Amino acid sequence: MQLSLKRIVIGILSLYVALQWYSIFLVSNIGVIASQFTAKTLFWSLWIIGKDPIIEKSLVIADSTRFGIIPECTIVAPLLLLIVGALITPFSFQKKIRIIFIAFILLSLINIIRLSSLFFLLSFDSQYYEMIHVLIWQPIIIISTMVIWGWWVFTETIS
Length: 159
Fold this sequence. Notes:
With about 160 residues, the protein is mainly α. The chain has one domain. The chain has helices at about 5-25, 30-50, 75-90, 95-125, 130-159; strands at about 55, 60, 65-70. Strands 1-2-3 form a three-stranded antiparallel β-sheet, with helices on one face. Helix 1 (about 5-25) runs antiparallel to helix 3, helix 3 runs antiparallel to helix 4 and helix 4 (about 95-125) runs antiparallel to helix 5. The longest helix is centred in the C-terminal third of the chain and has 32 residues, at about 95-125.
């Protein structure tokens, strides 16, 4: 697979637009809605494993732990990165839509695991919360996005 100059320019422009849109997303009602949706998924994951959480907009409370979800806690940034990656690949529109859907599901699952583990870390030992959050989980989310995209490109190229 060879990327043309046209696709590279489209990728750069798409990334620029995505970054501009993301900064608006962070302070918009859409960001609030995405945060509340993500808080609901955390609520259900905690409920499934036997906790008795309470949800107040984008705040999840269980036991004595209050865990706020902000727009940066959603999968919007990694999904935008994957969408830009899908745009620059020379595959059909249907294949691009399929990987975006698959990535949405996979990134949502990874994000729920991330948020649940951070919730429990905050519950038991808040000393390491920020370090684990920033140095471990944030890179894992971005690397996961790149692995999903790379796996897609590899499997589509060899098939």
